[in-house]
Amino acid sequence: MIIDVLKLIKELNIKESYDEKKEIIDSINLLIPQINSILKKYFVDELKHKEKKEYPEDFFDNITTDKKMLQDFIIESLEHLERAQVDIVDLEYDPTNKDKIDSIFRAFHSIKGSASFLGLKNIEEVSHELENLFSMVRDSKLRATKEIIDKILEGIEFLKNIINVITINDFNIDKIKNDFKSINIYSYISEIRGITGHKKIGEILKEEKRIDDEDIQEILLEQIETKKKFGEIAVEKEKVTEEDIKTAVAKQQEELKKFVSNYVKVSYDKLNELIDNVGELVINQSMIKQKLSNMIKDVELERILNSFEQIITSMKNIVISMGMIPIGEIFNKLKVVIRNTAREVNKIVNIQMEGEETELDKNVIEKIYDPLVHIVRNAIDHGIEMPDEREKVGKPRAGLLYIGASHRGNNIEIVIRDDGAGINREKIINKAISMGLIENSDNLSDKEVFNFLFLPGFSTKEGVTNISGRGVGLDVVKKNIESIKGKVEIESYKGKGTKFIIKIPLTLAIIEGFITKVGTNTYIFPFDIIEEIITFSDKDVTKMGDGDYMVFHRGKHIPIVLAGKVLKEMNYKTDIKDAIVLVIEYDNIPYGIAVDSVLGKQETVIKSLGILFASNPVFSGGTIFGDGTIGFVIDVEGFINSVKRKEGLNI
Amino acid sequence: MKTVFSVEDSLVVRNIIKQVLQSEGFNVLEAENGKQALEIINSKKPKVDIYILDVNMPEMDGITLLGEIRKFDTTTPVVMLTTETDKSKIMKAKGLGATGWIIKPFEREPFLKVIRMLLEKEG
């Protein structure tokens, strides 16, 4: 019993929404009333800050005892905060959207106003700081950087937690006051002031002992009437000299600069051009290094070439990172989606997120959002069971949805995992059979079965729900992910849950690849997909009909694809003993691709091939080498699929 | 009985205004934003003795609403509700024909004093 309660308390820590928190608190209240005090303590302790600044004695004296008013306030403020949370995340993609900016500003403004009437001074002060901070964003004095947005989101959470104290204490003003006193708002406020920190001209003049409080009052009153600048009035009234104002303004600017001048705005087109150019530079550099070190053996030259290489590599990394934004920004948006979806279908979902700081190309981030939303909504609608159902099978009432991002070589891996019922394999097989895709399920791996879900028009759900059945299936998810050269896979265990794994390249602009010769042309195979490069002697090879081969390698039979045949080259090596075989794994099946020779490994800038090749799925792009020759970048999926189709390869 | 039309987006503030005014025998009309207020004015044509308009509201703010009201009614007093941060908007409101303003948060007595004063002035 106690363990269950502790578990619930622990869950509470990662809980997101007010409703869910309240639900848990309510149920615990019913179970053992004593736990309430522990729970409260835990909940409130979490908010305590190390830095202690005491509230003034009478700080909470004027809190209203009107329960109805407090209730109105809670409903209204939480509504404002929820909306602000969504809007602020949207703002990252649409930083000049005036409606959103106004709406967020109004949320803080309104909460501040209401709180001030009800004597909720702590809430008033925190929302006042947030309003100040956000007004700087609104007036373009501050750019809505990730840091700023994070600070605002943090503030929204903070406000929600403070507001929740009122409900937790069941509107008992004495208890509320007590808890309020233990929540320190000043360290958050001082953090915000560190950003908004520029002082008003009046404050600076007062610090310099040029004017006193009375003067400030007088000037402010006049300011309301005349709308003139503070400094102007101060000089007119002969409180200070013009020189004083100039010094004060300079001081103010100096403080503001700390936050503003760290950024320059660059158009995305220009950035792309730069990435392109740096990519070429990388290639040229590696050519020069190779050529020169072959021609001249000189230690000094080698040293220079190495440092040249280092500089260019670091330059390339910086340039690529310039177009990158952290995936955490869409994670925040997903949190809102998760919360709303769970509410729609009356399920309880805890969210766990990891790797928010992982950075991705801005183009990629924009395209990955919709598929993620789809997967997440699916997981809540179809994956996670209703609380009662979960309880019956011995799971906690709240489902867990994990979303994580991490680096894997030149790829980013995004994992979305739920602890729901898992995918029903039988159902998929039945559907596949009824659609005439297969005759029976013999020899089908789970992965192959789950892959059917990615086919257009394949949905096993009888009837459509409001959540996932909108005529958009997983086929669209797959298509979207593939459009950014990504891959998606499903793993699912009955009763335990489902996991989506999405792999996407860090950037679409530069790949590391093996330069190969096939016939008369140069082809580039992406480095990541190649498991190994091997040559074969007679004994390993079985010749099949149609000039195809099969090799036995590391305990597996690997079909060999002659690249020259697929690429329709003329004079390529048809005898596999002379060729070099790149072993790749695609859809968990190993293939060997036979090329004439491998020239080396190199970073390559991918360029669009233009309309001539646009419809050819075998190529993902082209590249120009330092010596002016052209290479084609192979799209492995397109390559393998075209083999399957043309050769009727039954794998 | 005098009628006050209070236009304010915050439910909390709206209720406070209503409570204070009703306890003093005023009749109170309410709207959540400028757009809603205009709709009520146009459809019901209520007889209003004084308007209280919040400056910062969604859909249509108080300043815009004031301009709209002044198109057909130049005499009814209009009090603007504002905060410290919005003080700069007072001048604009004055130019459009606002009769007075109250800065939030306000206390009961000074608030009533302003309302009574403006009503007497008109009467």
Plain-language structure description:
The complex is a heterodimer of chains A (651) and B (123). With 651 residues, chain A is of the alpha+beta class. Chain A has 6 domains: 1-46; 53-196, HPT domain (Four Helix Bundle (Hemerythrin (Met), subunit A), Up-down Bundle); 201-260; 268-322; 325-505, Histidine kinase-like ATPase, C-terminal domain (Heat Shock Protein 90); 510-647, OB fold (Dihydrolipoamide Acetyltransferase, E2P), CATH 2.40.50. Chain A contains 24 helices and 18 strands. Chain B is built from 5 helices and 5 strands; from the N terminus they run E-H-E-H-E-H-E-H-E-H. Chain B has helices spanning 11-23, 34-44, 62-72, 89-96, 108-122; strands at 3-7, 27-31, 50-54, 78-82, 100-103. In chain B, helix 2 (34-44) packs parallel to helix 3 and helix 3 (62-72) packs parallel to helix 4. The two termini of chain B are 13 Å apart. Chains A and B meet through helix 4, helix 5 and helix 6 of A and helix 1 of B.
What structural class should be given to the helix and strand makeup of chain A? alpha+beta
CATH superfamily of chain B: Response regulator
Derived structural class of chain B: alpha/beta
Could you tell me the CATH topology label of chain B.
Rossmann fold
Rg over CA atoms of chain B: 13 Å
The CATH architecture category of the largest domain in chain A equals 2-Layer Sandwich
How many DSSP H or I helices of chain A?
Answer: 24
Bin the strand percentage of chain B: 15-25%
* Beta-strand percentage range of chain A: 15-25%
Mean pLDDT value of chain A: 78
Relative helix content of chain B: 40-55%
List keywords for this structure.
heterodimer, A: 651 residues, alpha+beta, Four Helix Bundle (Hemerythrin (Met), subunit A), 6 domains, six-stranded mixed sheet, five-stranded mixed sheet, 24 helices, flat, disordered C terminus, B: 123 residues, alpha/beta, Rossmann fold, five-stranded parallel sheet, 5 helices, 5 strands
